[in-house]
Amino acid sequence: MPRSRVLSLLTLLTLLMFTPNSWAAPRVVVSILPLHALVAEVMQGVAQPQLLLDGGSSPHSYALRPSQARQLSQAELVVWMGAGLESFLVKPLQTLGKQTTLLTLHQVPGLALLENRQPLHWLEQSAVHDHDAHQDHAADTDHDLDAHQDHAADTDHDHDAHQDHAADTDHDHDAHQDHTADTVHDHDAHQDHTGHDHGKLDLHLWLDPQQAILMVHAVAKQLSQLDAANATRYQQNAQHLVERLEQLTLRLATQLEPVRQRPYLVFHDAYHYFERRFGLATTAALTLNPESRPSAKAMQQVRQLIQRQGAVCLFSEPQFEPAMVQAIARDTGLRTAELDPLGSQLQPGIGAYFTLLTNLANALSNCLTTP
């Protein structure tokens, strides 16, 4: 046998022995950039998950291209948040075969789910009560997050130090789990419940890094079941990621502490989990559905609320037309800035989740800091 061929065979054997089993890794498709970033971290060194929507596309109003439908049909694992956020995926997911596993992240056990806040009701409550009274009213509708998060921490990771810093109140997950469970083959009833008004539950859970920790564990568990050969790598990656998410939580809490009591408004009510985690004093959102414009009555209420509450900033989003935000800012003298919950300008993949949350904290602290 020629010497060159022997060397080639030896090289191939070496690669077989020491290269991760990337050819055996499941084909993974993830719906949106923040979730994709977390999955990419768990799969680091094994394979790259595919991203369905880039950060510049809104999951609230999207139609799949044929190439994306093919991506889904070839996937062995699809990771999404759920029908209440990515409603455009409900029908395509119903067509997938038994070879595809669906991981619906809002159903992960231990998550503290919040209900959507209705902007008009929110504004009407604010017109009658001051901000503190409204916060008490919101808290009365929820169960104790401390106890819930401590229970989740006992099953996964120790969060005691941070939970002491970020006490919240939320709904009992088990009740919501029974009420909102959906599968790849049975979405019709859930879709009726979570239509264009986004349903009852707020599914922007990735904006709370402590909720992200539970999702990371679920991703690692699912990947390990599908790909036992790389299970150790997935678990190690997940543990390292959890440690970094803990550090991120503490760092952002320290950064946002000086502006926690500074009231502000957002264009789109996507930040409930972020606000609850870090104790921020949001006053109202202009809309729950970013494709719908608030009524003239709601806009008048917004202007009155700004004056009454002394709001400092109004935040828009890059995915949506900012003209309405600019008009309110001109009328009221509010400072404006941009929050991006989806990472529209970020490079997908490893590190993107940390950049996304850091950018949110930077935008909030910069605008809310007294000039």
From TrEMBL:
Residues 1-24 form the signal peptide. The keyword Zinc applies. It comes from Magnetococcus marinus (strain ATCC BAA-1437 / JCM 17883 / MC-1). It comes from the Bacteria. It holds the Pfam family ZnuA. GO terms for molecular function: metal ion binding. Residues 151-199 are annotated as: Disordered. InterPro entries: Bact_metal-bind_prot9 (IPR050492), ZnuA-like (IPR006127). Keywords: Ion transport, Signal, Transport, Zinc, Zinc transport. This is High-affinity zinc uptake system protein ZnuA. The keyword Chaperone does not apply. PANTHER family: HIGH-AFFINITY ZINC UPTAKE SYSTEM PROTEIN ZNUA, HIGH-AFFINITY ZINC UPTAKE SYSTEM PROTEIN ZNUA-RELATED. Belongs to the bacterial solute-binding protein 9 family. One of its GO terms (biological process) is zinc ion transport.
